[in-house]
Each structure stands twice: as structure tokens, then as C-alpha cells.
């Protein structure tokens, strides 16, 4: 029997406030508590709470027949604890059903797997503790930040005891092959790989409300019809997307909740598919072969690479300046410094500095609170400068940090800065994930 694997990412960054140059060395409060509280409560009311209730109702209706999975970042959990405890409780109710799997993640939704094995292992461990604390599960399947994956990363993930990892079914690694099978790491064959079917996932996550899309409107019956058209030998369709798809990126008025509510009935009535969690999928199928990924891939933008976060000199300077402090920060033992160090690693900070204003430009502006990438860079580097001064006082050593960047240059492309503007929450067709 063929299977569907639903995975949802739940992430909220701890956002930085506008931190001015003259505050460096004087004010160590970096975070926009008002924005963090307001956004968490808004997204919870529009998306998390009603969607969790819908999924709970579906589980009560269909029992073990209906299953989904989540990865919830540590920064999202911290903000649920602080600003929306009812949201955390609603996820705990889902965990108690036995039909929901929680995956491993980096605690701060960071890019540390690209730079530091020690920090990668540390953050995955911190996240694992949070999942145990709140949901009583010990994750066995890993989902790296933004589905970032490479052969090198697979080695670290397998060494941490995970049996499988999720990643993008990118064309540059699959070629003619289909994502609708279980694969394994080329270097660590024991690590199984579940690859996102980006076309069918994006039909829900991005194209659902686009009235210019030839297949609009998308109904559950139409979607099941597409699933039935897949070759019968293909075993599993992995539908991976942001949880904010429901109610935030696709507003309730678009019919997204009705689509999801009716999908199980349409699937059970008109197909032979069943729902599996990632760990169940790994246990149910054998890998058809290895996937060799020498350079990191992600689920971001059309390129499915790292250029959303590390594609220009602004991002590279900020990233290098941050991780240059790693050895010293690890030796301080200062809990406040360590907490700030984790939050400053969150990938969103580097995403805001992106200068890609081509096919994915509107997407980047929609997710960016800054008017320009340069403004995002300066704000981040101001914070990092103050953080460095605090670290310097702790270790009694002079540290050097560059605040002024080189001229921003996008690799392989030249761009111009464009002022951000608000986009209707239902409009983007291609987004960072």
C-alpha cells in the first residue's frame, strides 16, 4: 500500500529590536519583546490553534489511520511557553494521541551544521531535551534547519543516533529519479532519507490560493486524483511544508482548512494510500539506493541551495564574525551569553540580509521586517558588537569585529536594493521553503 507522509515545520525566531550604534556597550537588551509576543499570539490565533484543533478532530475521527509529524524549534517553544501557553498545550494534546511524531531539529533553527560540528551536536542535544520535556518523545528522525543536507551533514546526523533525515527532493541531486521512494545516505547507508515532493507540497503551501494558477481552485478530490496518477510502483509521497501555511500564508478565507479537513476522507474513499509518520515510513520501506550530495541543498527558493542565507558579502561577513567567537563563548560558562549566542545563530537573521530580488524577491520581502538588506546587516552587527564587548570583558581579551561590510555582492548575480512592501498573505507562489 502506498503512503503519504505529512511533515510540518513550526518556527518563530526571537526577533531583534532596532539596536542603534550609540547603544553599543551600554544596553544589552537585544530582543523585540513586543514583536515576538504580538506575532506569536497572532500566528497562534490564526493558524496554530485552529489547525491543531482540526488535526485533533481528524485523529479522533480516524484514529491510527491519520498521522502527521512536526519539528518545532526551540525558539518557537520558548515563545509558546512565554506568550502562548495554550498553543503549547494544544501540541501536547496532539502528542498524547500517539498519532503525531516530533522530529529532531537544531534548537535555534541555526546554520551551525555548515560551520561547527560541536555546536551542531550541542544544539541538537538541547532541542532533544526540549522535545522530551514537553512531548515525552525521543526523536529518531532528524530535520535540519531549512531541510539543509549534504553528505558531510549525514555523517554527523548518523553519529548522533538518528535513523533517518528529511531533505529536499531537489532536481540537482535526483536527476531523472523520483522523490517518491525511500533513499539512504551515500556515506552512511544506515541513515535513511525521506525526500520532499516539492511539486505536490508547493501546490498546497504556495499555489493554493493563487487564482492565476491554471489548477485553481484546488480541492481535496482533485489532489487525490493527482496522487492516483503517480506510477503505482512509487511508494511514498512526502508532503513537507511550513505549519504557517494554514491560516497565515494561506488565510482561512482561501478554504485551506476545508481542504485539509476533507483530505483524509477523500484519500480513504478514492485511493489506496495510507498516512505514515516519518519513523513508520522508514520502518515500512527499504531504500532503493543512495543519494550523493557533495554540496549542501535546502528547500529554499528555486535554486534549492544556501544562497538565501549565505549568498552575499553581508551575510558572509555576519556569519563569519559570529562563528569567530565560538571557542571563547564556549569557555565562558555564562548562561546569558550562551543564550544570546544561540539566538544570534538563528538563520532568519541572515535571511533578512538576502539581496535576491529576482524570481524569489517578493518572497524575501514578505518575510523581512527590514526595509533593506543593509539595514538588517547593520542592526545585526550592532548587536553582535555589543555581544562581543560583553564577551571581551568576560574573557579579559581584546576581540576584533568588523562592523562595516564590503560592498554587497550577490554571487553569480548582480542586484539592486528594493524597498520592502507588504504582500497579501495568500499571494507568494514560490517562497523560501
Describe the fold and architecture:
The protein has helices at residues 33-62, 74-83, 85-96, 117-135, 151-159, 171-174, 198-205, 220-228, 256-270, 278-284, 313-323, 326-330, 335-344, 347-351, 361-366, 373-395, and strands spanning 3-10, 68-72, 100-102, 141-143, 164-168, 182-185, 192-196, 236-242, 274-275, 290-291. The relative contact order is 0.15. The strands form two sheets. Strands 1, 2, 3, 8 and 9 form a five-stranded parallel beta sheet that branches. Strands 4-5-7-6-10 form a five-stranded mixed beta sheet. β4, α5 (151-159) and β5 form a beta-alpha-beta unit. Mean pLDDT is 91; it is low at 358-364 and 405-433. The radius of gyration is 21 Å and the shape is globular. The longest helix has 30 residues, at 33-62. The protein is an alpha/beta fold. It contains 16 helices and ten strands. It starts with a strand and ends in a 38-residue tail after the last helix.
- Which value, in Å, is the CA radius of gyration? 21 Å
Tell me the overall shape: globular
SS-derived structural category: alpha/beta
Give the biggest beta sheet. 5 strands, parallel
Give the count of helical stretches: 16
Average residue pLDDT: 91
Low-confidence runs: 358-364, 405-433
The portion of residues assigned to helices is 40-55%
Measured distance between first and last alpha carbons = 29 Å
